[in-house]
Design a protein that fits this description.
The structure is a homotetramer. The first copy, chain A, is α+β, with helices and mostly antiparallel strands. The first copy, chain A, has one domain: Haem-degrading domain (Beta-Lactamase), CATH 3.30.450. A 4-stranded antiparallel beta sheet of chain A has the order 2-1-4-3. In chain A, β3 and β4 form a beta hairpin. In chain A, α1 runs antiparallel to α4. The longest helix of chain A is centred in the N-terminal third of the chain and has 17 residues. The first copy, chain A, is globular, with a radius of gyration of 14 Å. The two termini of chain A are 20 Å apart. Chains A and C meet through α2 of A and α2 of C. β2 of chain C pairs antiparallel with β2 of chain D.
Chain lengths: 131, 131, 131, 131
């Protein structure tokens, strides 16, 4: 549960700059490695419905230590993992949730929602490495 | 639901400086006037159990446009408002939740938890006025 | 609701040895015949998201006294059992949940999650017979 | 989130021996430092209603890094912390939840329920130190 507020603030800032660059207002959340809220911002005009999506993408990423879309592979109909998406209070498994890497170590998870899927994904990526 | 991220960030910063001054790690949340999450930080070493308390204090404040402890007056046993505390998903009505004032206008709500009650209250107060 | 802690511990141990043999860290749960938790272990490095999956697989197995994947047959789209997966707080109906047999009698249910589906299934099988 | 299954099993064993010594069947749970289930046993004849109590005592202890009864001090009517007990999904704040200490470090949390309060407390204490 190691991410510091200092690093979490950097992560949020990196993601926010990307969102501003591509002019998409989003919700950005940082969870610690156990899934507890560490830092959050909702940019002006971001959808209210995306608050929960951002948090659940990050949580889904945390639960399986993988990008949210990687978890999504197991939710495809042909995977036949019936009911999997209803576990853990509901998985949200499309792009926008990622581990935050500090070198080779996962120190937390970022979740982004508010734009189109590739936009959310790009913004989450921008926040997912400690520079 | 008007608070901007710019102002919410100022509110968080003002409260955080007070928390650092009195050396109490807390959770600080800003909700908009409809109770939706706008900004949040968990300072390092703040209790995990205080994340939810901070959010619920701010939400309780929002629901009745009053400080959380003012709502608490109605929860005293002698008020006989049986079941009131179970409404709205659970009221949390002790000090640490407050309206954020911009002049005479309420623009959002702050919630703080992690220290003793007077400390949480002092930190929330520090964040509750736009300077 | 008859499984004893002595037998539940044997079941967990049998499954754990299989998991260690194939080097997959998993969550292993034993429920009694009414679905109440009897014994549980999370092996080191097992996914946090698999705690709930293991428990729900075992519970799904218990609810219909069948392997979890047998219940899954009723959740295939062509079964047209609309909403079935949302009953009972959410069914989890892919391999890894099984009755525990003592001779011909069901004495409890095992659930396993953390590996690929065939691995979970193999580990659950290893725990599902009292020797 | 550091407790190993090896240490968690020792904790369960220490607590179980105390429970057997005083002839009280209980539920015993070990959570990691983030509150996730690590290990659990229900002794034969322990109350079904005590499964959740044991887990919630340990979780309450985790949320505030304190014995469950210490959290209970803040729930006394004279503390006037209205609604506190409804936070975090419901606090359970009477004896039987404790940090597990490995030297000076908290490595997890134990929760015990099934006996009278002093019995639960004694059993939890027996499991709360790595020898």
């Amino acid at each position: 549960m190691s991410i510091t507020l200092h690093l979490a603030s950097m992560v949020i800032q990196q993601a926010r700059e990307k969102a501003e660059e591509i002019k998409i207002p989003v919700n950005i959340v940082v969870l610690d490695t156990a899934g507890y809220l560490k830092s959050f911002i909702r940019m002006d005009d971001a959808f209210l419905g995306s608050i929960d999506i951002a948090i659940q993408k990050a949580k889904t990423s945390m639960l399986f230590r993988a990008n949210s879309e990687t978890v999504g592979e197991f939710l495809k109909p042909e995977a036949a993992a019936y009911g999997l998406e209803n576990t853990n209070g509901g998985l949200v498994a499309f792009p926008g949730g990622r581990p935050i890497m500090n070198g080779n170590a996962i120190i937390g998870y970022i979740g982004v929602s508010g734009g189109a899927v590739p936009q959310d994904s790009m913004i989450a990526y921008a926040g997912s490495f400690i520079k």
